[in-house]
Design the sequence.
C-alpha cells in the first residue's frame, strides 16, 4: 500500500510524520489529464481487505486505519460492495460485472471468461502490458498460480479467488476443456508473488518499493488470508487487527518509496462486508457498507457521504488513467470525483 499514495492514499504531514520521513517526490510520469473530474494518475495502489463492515471497525481492531489513515485521507462513509461472495467482488471491481459462478466462489477454471476488463484496458492504453499493471499476490507459490496454497498455521494461505486477473482468458491465457491452464506471457510477468511463501512475506513488493523499480501504473495489492482480515490466524483473536498491521507496514512503504509522486494514490477498501445493505442491491444480492479511503496528494482529506460502490471505483480508475470507454456496469456508475483538490 505504498502504492498507497497511488489510488487512495494518506499523505499529509501528520501521517507521514508518524510513519517516518518520506523520500523526495519524483517527477510526474505524465499520462495527460484524467476524465470526468478525476485527476490523471501516475501510480495507483489498491489494497483490499476481506469481509468487514465499516461499522465493525473500532479503535481496538483498526487503530491505524481509523487513527492515521482516516484523518489524512478522503474517507467515504457510504461505499458499498456489490454482492457476496469474495470472487464476485474482485471480478466486479475489475470488469464491472460478475457471474453466478463467481458469486458462488467457484474455481477459476470453472468461472473463467473473456469479458472486457481493466487489465486489458490498461494494456491498450499504455501500448503494452509491461509496466501497465501488476497484481501483487502475497504467498502465491509462482506467477499466475490458480490453485489454493499454504495455510493458516504457516501464515501463507493464498486464495486464487482473490486474484481476478486469473478469471479473464484475454489476460491469463485461458483454460482447455479439461480445465488446464496455459498461462500467457502477460500473466506470468504481471500476476506475481509479493514475496516468498514464508510467513506473511511481502519482500518482493517491498523491495520494488525500496528501489523505486519494478512498479506498474496500476498495482493491485492483495494480502494472504492471514493478513487480509479473512482468517483467524495466530496470534488468534483479531483478524481485522492483522489487516490493520499489514496496512501500517505497506502504506508506509509506499509513501516513502522513491517512486511515490504527486500524482499517485493509494486506495484501501474491503471486498465485502458480512451484512447486506438494504439501500444498495445488485442482481445477486448486496455486499454491505465497507470502508474506503484514498490517500493521495491529489485528494482532499475529509469525510464524504456520497454513495459509491466497486463499479464506481472501476470507473474512477479508468478515468484517472485516461480511459474513456467503461466496461460492464462501470458505464452506468458515477465516478468518484468529489474528493479531489
Sequence:
Amino acid at each position: 500500500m505504498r502504492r498507497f499514495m497511488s489510488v487512495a492514499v494518506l499523505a499529509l504531514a501528520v501521517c507521514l510524520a508518524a510513519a517516518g520521513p518520506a523520500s523526495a517526490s519524483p517527477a510526474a510520469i505524465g499520462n495527460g489529464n484524467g476524465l470526468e473530474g478525476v485527476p490523471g494518475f501516475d501510480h495507483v495502489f489498491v489494497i483490499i481487505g476481506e469481509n468487514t463492515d465499516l461499522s465493525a471497525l473500532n479503535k481496538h481492531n483498526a487503530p491505524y486505519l481509523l487513527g492515521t489513515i482516516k484523518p489524512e485521507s478522503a474517507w467515504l462513509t457510504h461505499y458499498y460492495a456489490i454482492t457476496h461472495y469474495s470472487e464476485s467482488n474482485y471480478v466486479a471491481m475489475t470488469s464491472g460485472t460478475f457471474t453466478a459462478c463467481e458469486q458462488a466462489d467457484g474455481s477459476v477454471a470453472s468461472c473463467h471468461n473473456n469479458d472486457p476488463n481493466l487489465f486489458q484496458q490498461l494494456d491498450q492504453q499504455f501500448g503494452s502490458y509491461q509496466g501497465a499493471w501488476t497484481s501483487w499476490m502475497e504467498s502465491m507459490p509462482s506467477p499466475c498460480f490458480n490453485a489454493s496454497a499454504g495455510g493458516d498455521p504457516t501464515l501463507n494461505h493464498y486464495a486464487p479467488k482473490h486474484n481476478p486477473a486469473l478469471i479473464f482468458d484475454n489476460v491469463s491465457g485461458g483454460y482447455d476443456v479439461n480445465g488446464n491452464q496455459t498461462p500467457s506471457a502477460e500473466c506470468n510477468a504481471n500476476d506475481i508473488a509479493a514475496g516468498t511463501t514464508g510467513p506473511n512475506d511481502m519482500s518482493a513488493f517491498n523491495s520494488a518499493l525500496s528501489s523505486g523499480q519494478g512498479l506498474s501504473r496500476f498495482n493491485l495489492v492483495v494480502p494472504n488470508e492471514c493478513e487480509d482480515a479473512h482468517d483467524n490466524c495466530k496470534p488468534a483473536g483479531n483478524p481485522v487487527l492483522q489487516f490493520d498491521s499489514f496496512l501500517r507496514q505497506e502504506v508506509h512503504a509506499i509513501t516513502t518509496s522513491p517512486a511515490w509522486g504527486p500524482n499517485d494514490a493509494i486506495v484501501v477498501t474491503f471486498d465485502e462486508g458480512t451484512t447486506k445493505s438494504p439501500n444498495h442491491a445488485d442482481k445477486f444480492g448486496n455486499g454491505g457498507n465497507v470502508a474506503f479511503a484514498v490517500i493521495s496528494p491529489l485528494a482532499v482529506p475529509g469525510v464524504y457521504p456520497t454513495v459509491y460502490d466497486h463499479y464506481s471505483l472501476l470507473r474512477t480508475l479508468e478515468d484517472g488513467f485516461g480511459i474513456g470507454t467503461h466496461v460492464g456496469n462501470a458505464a452506468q456508475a458515477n465516478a468518484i470525483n468529489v474528493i479531489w483538490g
